[in-house]
Structure formats: C-alpha cells, structure tokens
Amino acid sequence: MVDVPNIRFTNGVEIPQFGFGVFQIPPRETAGIVRSALDAGYRHIDTAQGYGNEEGVGQAVRESGLARDEVFITTKLDNSRHGDPEAALEESLKRLGTDQVDLFLIHWPRPAQDRYVEAWRALERLAADGRARAIGVSNFQVPHLRRLADETGTVPAVNQIELHPRLVQRELREYHREHGIETEAWSPLAKGGDLLRERLLLDMAERYGRTPAQVVLRWHVQLGNIVFPKSATPQRIRENIDVFDFELTAADMAA
Ligand code: NDP
What is the number of the ligand 1 atom nearest to the C-alpha of 48? Predict the structure, then answer.
C-alpha cells in the first residue's frame, strides 16, 4: 500500500496530501470508480455539491469496509447556496451518508453575487459545531482572501485553485505560505491534455522510468501542493498515486 504523507492544517486536522477527484465522473459510475481508488490506497476524496455524485462517494466509502475516519472527504458549497450554507451542508451530509465532512469549501467566490463573506461566517459556525472538521475556499484570488482576513475571524485551511506546470500560481502560493493557508491544486494534470505530450516531460519521464503524469504529480508533491487527480481508468488510478518512491532533482523541478 502507498504511504501518502499527511499535511496538517493550522487547526490540527490532517489531510492526506494525495487524493482522488471526482469532477465529471457520472453519478452512476461514481461508487465503482471511487471504490477502485480506495482499493488502490487513496484515502482522500474531493467532490462537490455541483458534481452531482456525492451519493456515489458515500456509497463507495461505506462498501469499502474502511472506517469513516480512515477516509478524508471534501465537498464544496454550490454557487447558488451562499445564502444558506448550513442547509446546503445538511443536504450533502445526507447524500454522503455521514454526519460530518472533513473539509467544506466555498466553491467559487462569485464576487458579482457578493455573498462570500456571509457564506464564510456560516462555514465558521459549521466548523464550530463539528459538522465540518475544517473549512476553506476555492478559486479565491488575493483580494478575496484579504477581504476574508479583514472582515472575519478565521483563516481558510486551504484555497483550492487551478494549478499545474502551465499555471504555476506564484502569487497565490506566496500569499498562502505567508498566511498559513494550504494550496490545493485542481486539474493537477492540466486535464490530461497535450501537457503530457510535451517534449521536456517525455524526456524527463524516460530518464526517471516513469510516465509524464507521474512526473507532473511528483512535481506537485515536492512543491507541497495537495493534489487529487481524476481518472476513470483503473490502471491510471493506480499509476497516479504511485509517486512516493522517486524524487525530482532541483533542476528538473525548475525546468
Ligand atoms: P485532472 O488534471 O485531474 O485530469 C483528469 C484528466 O486526465 C481525465 O481526462 C483523465 O482521463 C486524464 N488522466 C488521468 N490520469 C492520467 C494519466 N496517468 N495519464 C494520462 N491521462 C490521465 O483534471 P480535473 O479537472 O478532473 O481535476 C482533478 C480534480 O480537481 C477534479 O476531479 C475535482 O475534484 C477538482 N477540481 C476542482 C475545481 C474547482 O473549481 N475547485 C475545478 C476542476 C477540478 P481518464 O479519466 O479517462 O483516465
């Protein structure tokens, strides 16, 4: 079994650095695919209210035989629910079949709607009463993070942002580092497109005896990012998490 390190949030909650994303996995296929991921050693699942597949995630965890506290589950507040996150989380908990999520995120700040500060205050209450062990945000830019810091009492445990070798997000990563916010990288493989056919990556993969996807995922791990690549292919599901027994050199990280 793969030995995935944990990252500790400022509130003491620990998250496995490597997880499994379920965006665009059809609801009916979710339980089976998540089960493959759990069998391959993944212990962290990233879903969202908007993905429509929380039931399948909950079913897979229950059927896996693992204890609930052995699997870290993240879900995200739908953009239409900034006015009532507490009721929205209750609905998620029912779909997931659990009484607590490990991490609850505001999926997008939606500044035109201008309710994300109010939504954050509701998340603070959900964290205080234990329905969410930790709370965070997603797709927040620096001004949105500054506003939360100025107007509310808590710092998000994470900010989940698009991040991969073609979008390295230096400014946000620096802000996160200065403020104790962990960086979660969505679309860590840049959606598996032509990035994985870049000459530089193909050459590196050959030198390490790995696949281009493994090189990219190892780059994330060494940067300290929390990652959860998605795959509906059992062989890739196993391949992706198998990145804890080699190390990229500083020169290859920079390249
Ligand atoms: P990823 O970067 O994880 O790429 C997924 C794509 O790459 C799929 O098409 C998959 O194909 C392919 N792939 C996976 N592994 C390999 C491999 N080893 N070799 C070649 N191709 C591969 O993209 P996602 O957008 O799915 O991002 C991952 C997760 O991030 C999501 O599932 C979700 O949890 C989260 N996310 C969050 C967002 C947010 O707004 N907060 C936005 C987008 C994503 P196949 O399935 O056919 O194997």
Answer: 34
